[in-house]
């Protein structure tokens, strides 16, 4: 693993050096502000709710906004592809990928996916006349110039176990990535102690001399699979089985623990798992064995459940990104940034 991580380090470092020196081309889209929401580690930092938070914030600022994503694991024949025109969802979650589909469900703005983010952004401008684009999970996508790179730092594992993939979860060297960031947001701050949070804030500020904000991911509602809201207090004192396809399912468990269940077990699947009927044979068997009152999953996993699935005790926990200390987007879009 150590050798593979070193090889990965060499590849990413050389690639970033080539972009830094402009040996590799960086495309620019004129007259459009591009905000990138990304991270230095793989998964688990809460990008999806963060993107939606900033989409709403920019709308309140009077911006005409679109979201552009790679559409990871989306199976589509057209690329780039319009997922939503801001009024209607035009494709399935299998075509778009799960995160873009969730954006389309929750936001009234264009959502576009494309392997070539430059072409996807051009489509957003040409088709919808937007003046601002949020680039979802694009920090390592160096081919496209942006005005601001917001890097999310997971408070529960800020440094990716101190190693690059595959030994750790770092996508690139933390030092070099941090230097390229415009600002940081520490996410899931409510899952660590106040002293640990202050230590992490101080480290980022001193190390990189960049703005640091703090956010948490709080529970907003418990819904059945048809979207009907249920009281959160239902979970208290109950036996709960969790299932998810997340990079960091432990954080999902910690969030449910905050609702005071009597007992919890988990069934974990690979990140971005596409659920099949056979998966629910495993889930139902586990729920029966532990005498579960509720089976709970995430909004991200909801969009990948098999059609026509009926389980009376299956619920979805919805999470909201909330800023506790907001120093973000200061001066965003000003002439001196372009």
Structure commentary:
The protein has 338 residues and is of the alpha/beta class. It folds into two domains: 2-217 and 322-337, Rossmann fold (3-Layer(aba) Sandwich), CATH 3.40.50.300; 219-319, 3-Layer(aba) Sandwich (Rossmann fold), CATH 3.40.50. The protein contains ten helices and 13 strands. The chain has helices at residues 2-20, 47-60, 93-96, 98-106, 117-128, 174-180, 194-208, 249-257, 277-289, 299-302; strands spanning 33-39, 65-69, 81-85, 110-113, 132-136, 148-154, 183-187, 211-224, 229-230, 239-244, 263-268, 294-298, 314-325. Strands 1, 2, 3, 4, 5, 6, 7, 8, 9, 10, 11, 12 and 13 form a 13-stranded mixed β-sheet that branches. The longest helix has 19 residues, at 2-20. It is globular, with a radius of gyration of 20 Å. The relative contact order is 0.15. The mean pLDDT is 95. Its EC number is 2.7.1.130. Transfers the gamma-phosphate of ATP to the 4'-position of a tetraacyldisaccharide 1-phosphate intermediate (termed DS-1-P) to form tetraacyldisaccharide 1,4'-bis-phosphate (lipid IVA). This is Tetraacyldisaccharide 4'-kinase. InterPro entries: LpxK (IPR003758), P-loop_NTPase (IPR027417). It comes from Cetobacterium somerae ATCC BAA-474.
